[in-house]
Design a protein that fits this description.
Number of helices: 8
Order of helices and strands: EHEHEHEHEHEEEEEEHHEH
CATH superfamily of the largest domain: Response regulator
Helix content: 25-40%
Number of domains: 2
Number of strands: 12
Shape: elongated
């Protein structure tokens, strides 16, 4: 049976290009120009297999539209799209039950991969929990999905204190191991700025490693090269978090 995808986006040209891309892949596609009309078209959700939802729209924004879609149908597969994203926004969307978070403008490959991955995803496994350390809620969550790539939280203790090894599932279902290293200069910078040493095996650095990997998948739409990534610095906004960790 042909899968039905609903596009909710206030930009007509984006809807048109997205429709053509998905129709070429064999999907049946519907459109809505804003959140309110999207909710009207969605109804109880029974007629749709997935929703591609823009974040920035007049009236109801993407997160509020997502919240109402999930109230109507908790197992709805909703893919958020935006040109303006941060890991915090992605986490907020995942907490509300988004299946994926994709960057605009999307290549046809990323769009088709994200939709295919969302249709395969078990929605009962979507809701992640924020990690809490000493009363501070950070963006480290069980899974993050961006551009069709799912990052799985590292399991067990790192082989080296300065290493984190993540499993990344690609839109096609392939599993990759990605190494993220914590540079000693980054550890030293945080110590100098906060007057507190957070060793490389601290969970704070796991959060930073996940952020670096998420940012790469967001920007590049591909798995990092074989050499992995290195956390070389820390955003100044993260220093108060480090001071309380």
């Amino acid at each position: 049976m042909t899968k039905r995808i609903l596009i909710i986006d206030d930009e007509e040209n984006i809807r048109r290009v997205t429709r053509l891309t998905l129709e070429a892949a064999g999907y049946e596609v519907g459109e809505a120009a804003d959140g309110e009309r999207g909710l009207e078209a969605f109804g109880d959700g029974a007629g749709w297999d997935a929703v591609l939802l823009d974040q920035r729209m007049p009236g109801l924004d993407g997160l509020e539209t997502l919240r109402q879609l999930k109230q109507r149908r908790p197992d709805a597969r909703v893919i958020m799209s935006t040109a303006y994203a941060s890991i915090e926004l992605a986490v907020d969307a995942m907490k509300l039950g988004a299946a994926d978070f994709v960057r605009k403008p999307m290549t046809p490959e990323i769009l088709r991969g994200a939709v295919a991955a969302a249709l395969l995803k078990e929605q009962s496994a979507v809701a992640p929990a924020a990690a809490t350390r000493e009363g501070t809620t950070g963006p480290l969550i069980q899974t993050v999905t961006m551009n069709g790539f799912t990052i799985l939280e590292p399991e067990g203790e790192p082989r080296e204190p300065s290493e984190r090894r993540f499993k990344v599932n690609s839109p096609g279902g392939d599993e990759h191991e990605v190494l993220v290293r914590i540079d000693e200069e980054a550890v030293g910078y945080v110590e100098r700025m906060t007057k507190r040493r957070l060793p490389a095996d601290s969970s704070f650095w796991t959060m930073q490693a996940q952020r670096a990997l998420s940012d790469y998948l967001w920007r590049e739409g591909s798995v990092p090269p074989a050499g992995g990534l290195t956390v070389r610095d820390v955003d100044r906004d993260e220093l108060p978090v480090a001071a309380r960790w």
